[in-house]
Amino acid sequence: MAAETDVMEKVVALTKRRGFVFPTAEIYGGMSGCYDYGPVGAELRRLIRDDWWRTMVTAREDVVGLESSILMPARVWEVSGHVAGFHDPLVDCKKCKGRFRADTLADARCPERPSKRPGECGGELTEPRQFNMMFKTVAGPVQEEGATVYLRPETAQGIFVNFKNVLESTRVRVPFGIAQIGKAFRNEIVVRQFVFRLRELEQMECEFFCVPGTEDAWFEHWKAYRLRWWTELGVRPSRLRLRPHDKEELAHYARGCVDVEYRFPFGWKEVEGIASRTDFDLKAHQTGSGKGLAYLDETTKQWVVPFVVEPSAGVDRCFLTVLVDAYEEETKANGETRVVLHLHPKLAPTQVGVYPLVKKDGMPERARAIHARLATVLRAAYDEQATVGKRYARMDEVGTPFGVTVDSQTLVDGTVTVRDRDTMAQERVHEDALLGHLAERIRTWKRADDGATA
Ligand code: GAP
Question: Does ligand 1 have an atom closer than 6 angstroms to the CB of 154?
Answer without folding.
Answer: yes
